[in-house]
TrEMBL record:
InterPro entries reported in the protein's UniProt record: ADH-like_N (IPR013154), ER (IPR020843), GroES-like_sf (IPR011032), NAD(P)-bd_dom_sf (IPR036291), YIM1/Zinc_Alcohol_DH_Fams (IPR050700)
Molecular function GO terms recorded: oxidoreductase activity
Organism: Ramularia collo-cygni
Occurrences of domain Enoyl reductase (ER) (ranges): 17-363
Domain of life: Eukaryota
Entry protein name: Related to oxidoreductase
Gene3D superfamilies: Medium-chain alcohol dehydrogenases, catalytic domain (3.90.180.10), NAD(P)-binding Rossmann-like Domain (3.40.50.720)
Amino acid sequence: MAGTTAMMRSLVSPQFGEPSIYELRDGEMPNVKKPTEILIKVEAASINAHDVIMASGRTKAIQVLPLPYPIGLDFAGTVLDSGSAVSSCGPGDSVYGFSAAGGTAATHLLLDTAKAHTHAIACIPAGLGMVEAAGLPAVAITAMLALQHADNFLPGGLQGKTVFIPGALSGVGSIALQIAKRKYNARTLTAASGGKIPKIGDCLGQEVVDTVFDYTQVNVTKKIGKGEVDFVFDTTGLASEYLPMIKRGGLCLSIARLPPGSALKDESPDAPHQSRLACIGQNVMDGMDNAFRTWAKTMYGVVYVYQKTEPNNSHMQELNNLIQSGVLQPVIGKTAGLNEIEKIRDGCTAILKGKGGIGKFVILMDDED
């Protein structure tokens, strides 16, 4: 008698479009076939802006993207099986991480450790739950690398420097502020809407933010003043508005402004062939990025850089160290079960519109077999 085929369920966008078209699809559960593979039963996955922007098709003319588009970059779960060459974790271990290929919003996930450029994974530190772990990898590593860049760039490092990180309770902003204060002892400035300001202390810790501005009531750049900030971490795409507040010789690092075309190129060995139109578009974007860098330097004496975050296993270990030393705590907002498709669509729509609320939106798989 033939055995029953094990099945899995995943969240996808069948076509490029808004989250209102997202759907659940059932398929055959993958199996470990190579000695370098790991099969994970996903317990939770969080949604990043990258997920919904890519699924919307905004970059489809200049970047090769798959359809249906697999949703999810971050995950937390339990290892079900692993190949003989995998030594970092094994069956029964609680793990979390990042998959550049997407598709983590699913009941099961198969990763190949031989393709280190496509994912990052680590065992979950003691005391951190699955939901909290799922909300960390992409945003925490993004924040960690941005602040490391600033610490290396600024004379004397970030210690005691003034930093402006908008989006106090956003996914990246909430983590970056904690690292800036607790690791680097920087003077932290941020912005949030009036309704969120009273929640900042409870979510991040009372000592994390030195000054917060209600961006709905004041012009933050004018309020801070010209040349008052050493480092701006642009998480909102408003780098051009923030430049006047930065000291000459200071740094503006963005993850939200229009990226250079090179940031959209997939350099992996198995990358799909790019069209001529995509190559032209990427070259145009490189030119625009170079022009903005030159303008920032000429007009304000500020160095501007765009950061493309590509997490790896070493970054995950650094993240574990930050968690275990008490530098950061996850900020989780709304959650939804994988079968609650309307709640998922609503949560993803809010993120696409830049109204994601507080912290990370996490999808739970525990209602699945």
